[in-house]
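Structure Section — protein described below
Tokens — whole-number codes for backbone shape
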Amino acid sequence: MPEHSRLAHRCDAATTGDADRCLRDFAGAAGLDEGEAPGFLFENWTGAIDETDPATRQRHFDGELEVGRRQHRKDMP
């Protein structure tokens, strides 16, 4: 992060294991601290996302998340 930037807020976010691994890999490749990586992504959002069809990707993600929730409920005693 540039020296003039200050951390203004801390954001706790729940992520999947895959998302956490991707974020760590991204942070390492970009030379960022794991805590700085989400801020970098949000500050550079338009350049960091694939704008070809984000709605389709979001629906796919939501479907995967729902399958995981169902599996979790099934595994609970």
